[in-house]
Amino acid sequence: MSVDWKWNGARWWRFEFHTHTPASNDYGKGPDQAVLKKRTHREWLLDYMRAGMDCVAVTDHNSGERIDELKNALAKLNAEAPQGYHPLHLFPGVEISVNGGIHVLAVLGTEKGTRDIDLLLGAVGFQGAPGKSDDVTQRSFVEVVNAIKDAGGIAIPAHVDEANGLFTLEGTTLQQALRCEEITAVEMIDPACEKPQIYSSSSCQWTEVLGSDAHHPSGNSGQQYPGSRFTWVKMGAPSIEGLRLALMDGPLSILRSDAATDDPNAYPNMLIESVHVENARYMGRPAPLEIQMNPWLNAVIGGRGTGKSTLVEFQRIAFRRRGELPEGLMSDFEKYEQVYTNRDEGGLLTNEAAIRVIYRKDGVSYRIQWSPDGSLESIQERSGEDWIRADGDIRQRFPVRMYSQKQIFHLARDPLALVSIINDAPDVDFAGWKRRFDAKENQYLALRAKIREIQAGLSEESRLKGELEDVKRKLAIFEQSGHADILKTLQKRRRQANAITAWESGLKGMGQRLRETAEVITPDSLDETSFDSSEAEDAQVLALIQEMASKAESISADLVALAERADAVEADWMQRKQVSAWQEATNAAIHTYEELQERLKAKGVTDLSEYGTLVQRRQTIEQQIKELADRRIQIEQLEIQANSCLDEIRSLRGEITELRRNFLDSVLDGNPYVRISVVAFGARELVEAQFRAIIRREGGGFEKDIGTPGGGGLLGPLNGNGSMKDSLDALKRTIRE
C-alpha cells in the first residue's frame, strides 16, 4: 500500500493469496532448484516486500512448516527495516489437495501459526507427505471447506480454471461443490475463461481473486513470481474478518491486478483529512474533539442532538461558506457562530472556541482555522512537524461543498441550483471561464461604446454639408462679381495711401519746426552788470560777445527764411498730389469698391471682408467632413472587431455548456440510476428578468410588449427551438427598428 497518508477507515491492500516457500517440494523447480530451496526466510519475505505486497497468504502444498519461522523473521525485519523493507502482514495458510485432486486454499488469521495449520490438516484427514501436492485428503471437498471454516479460516478453491481446479469437475460432484454456502471466493486465473454451464445457471456469485502461485523468487514475462499477480483488497486493517467481509462485498472491495489500471488508493487532489473542535459550548470540552476522515465516504451516525449538524456547520464556518446558505436559513445558522454569555442564549461557541480543518491539496496539508475573536491565522501549511503561515483566499484555494438537510430542501425548490454546483467543479472551472467571459464582454462593450461615441459625432455631417453649400454659394458671388480683383486693387491703393500718409507726416509742419528751431538757437542777452566797460579786458570780451550775437541772429533769420520756403514746398505738394494720376486711380478704386458693396448688399452680402473668413470656413468644413468620412471607416473597422468579439463571446458561451456536459458525462459514466442533460439556454424562466435588467425596467411594466419565451411579445421567439443566435439577432433587429 504505497500511500503517504495513513487515513482512518478502509483502504486498498495488495494481497497475495497464493504463494509457495521452499517447504513446497516443487519450489524452485528447474535447474537451479537446489540453490533456490536454500533461500532463507528473510530472503523470501524481502522478495514480497520488494514487490510491494501488503498481505501475503503462505500457502505451501499441504504444509505449514515455515509459518512460525517466517513470522519470527518478519519480526526481525520490522525491527531492522533494511533496504527493500516494506510493511508486510502474513496470513498463515495452506494449499490443500482435496480428495479427488482439487486444490483448495485455506487462509487463516494473522494470529495463527504452524500448529493451527497442522491441526487443520489433521481435521481434513491428510496423511500424506507435507509439501507434496500429489497426496490428497481423506475428506471430501465440502468437508474440507467446512473444516477450514471451523478453524476460523476462509476456503478459496485454487486456480479453478486450470489443472486441479474446481471447474474440472463435472456433474453431481461439481453441483455439490457449488451448493457449498461456505465458499464466497475462488481463485480464477483467466477472467475470460468460459465457466461451466452448471455454474452459470446456478445462483453462485463467487468473488474472483487472483494469486501468483509463485514457485520462484523471480521470473520473466509469462512466468509467475512475487508481485506478478495479486488482488487489491479493501479493508480497514489486515485481518481475517476484514478479508472475509471484503470477499463477501465482491467487486466493491475486491480488484484483481489484471483489471486495475491505476492505484485504487490514489485519492483526490483535494480532500479533508480531519476536523478539530476546541471549547465549543457542547463540543470539544474538556478535551478537543478530533475526527479523522477517510478519502472516500465518511458517515457520522448519531441520534438527535448528538452534534451531527453542528459538525457540518462548524466546517462551513471554517471554510467561510456562510454566504452559500439561502436567506431563509441564515437565522438558523447564526447560533453556530455565536458566543453564548448565559444559559438562556442559543449560541454554540465560547470565547475560547477554535475550529480547525486539515485540508489536503496536491499532496500538501493545510490547516484552516477560525475563532470568534479572529486571533488564529486563517491558513497554515504543514512544514515537517510545524505549521507555518500561508496566504490566499480560503474560498478560492480550498473549494468544498457542504449541504445541510434543510439546505438540500431549499435547493430542491430551485431548478438552477444544480448548475451552480456543477460550475464549482474543478473540471468546469467556472470562475476561470467567467474571468475570460467578462474580459471579452467588457472588450465588446468598450467597442460598442466607442462606436456610439463616433456615431454621435456623425450627426453633424448633414449640418456641415448644408453649411458648406451656403459658404460655397457666398464665395461664388464674390468670385462672379470680380470681387477679388477689385479688393486687391483697393488694398494696393490703400497700402500706398498709408505709405504716403506716413511720408507726409514728415513733410507737414516742417516750416513750423524750423521757426521753433530759430527761436531756440538764438542766445539770450548777456547780463552786463558784472562787467566794467572802462576796463580794457571787460570791454574786449563784451565786444566779442556782441559780434557772436550778431552772427547768431543772422543764422536765426536764415532759418525763418527757410521756414517760409518749407511752407511753400508743403503747399505745392498738397496741390499737385490732388491732381495727380495716382490720386485719380485711388479715387477710382474706392468708387469701384463702393459700387461692388452696393451690388453685393443687394444679394445678401453685407461684409466684403467676409471673403477671407468664408474661404477659411470652407477649408475648415471640408476638413471636418473628411474627418467624418474617416470616422465612418473607423466605425466599419470597429464593427468588424465588435462582431468578431461577439462571435468569441458566443463561442465562450458554448464552451461553458460543453464543459458542463463533459463534467457530467465523466461523473455519471456507467451510472444507470442518474441522468442529467445540459440544455443550452434552457433557463427560460430567467430570460425576462435578465432582459428587464438590461433595459432597466426591473420594477415591471410593458408586460405585453416584453412577453415571455415561447409566448408573445419581444421575447416570444426565444423558445429554445431553432438557432438561439438567429433568435437573438432577430430580437435585436426588432428592438432597433
Tell me what the structure shows.
With about 725 residues, the protein is of the alpha+beta class. It has helices at about 35, 40-50, 65-80, 115-125, 140-150, 170-180, 195-200, 240-250, 310-320, 330-335, 395, 405-410, 415-425, 430-460, 460-480, 485-505, 510-520, 535-580, 580-600, 610-670, 685-695, 705, 725-735; strands at about 10-20, 55-60, 90-95, 105, 155, 185, 205-210, 230-235, 255, 270-280, 290, 350-360, 365-370, 380-385, 385-390. The protein has a seven-stranded mixed beta sheet with strand order 5-4-3-2-1-8-9, sandwiched between helices. A hairpin with an 8-residue loop joins β10 and β11. α15 packs antiparallel against α20 (about 610-670).
User: Unreliable stretches, pLDDT < 50, 5 or more residues?
Assistant: none
CATH C-level of the largest domain = Alpha Beta
Total domain count: 4
What is the CATH topology descriptor of the largest domain? TIM Barrel
Please report the number of helical segments. Answer: 23
Instruction: Categorize the overall geometry.
Output: elongated
Give the helix level as a range of percent.
40-55%
Level-2 CATH architecture of the largest domain: Alpha-Beta Barrel
Relative strand content:
5-15%
Radius of gyration: 57 Å
Main beta sheet strand tally, sense and closure: 7 strands, mixed
With strands numbered from the N-terminus, the spatial order across the biggest sheet is 5-4-3-2-1-8-9
CATH H-tier superfamily of the largest domain: Metal-dependent hydrolases
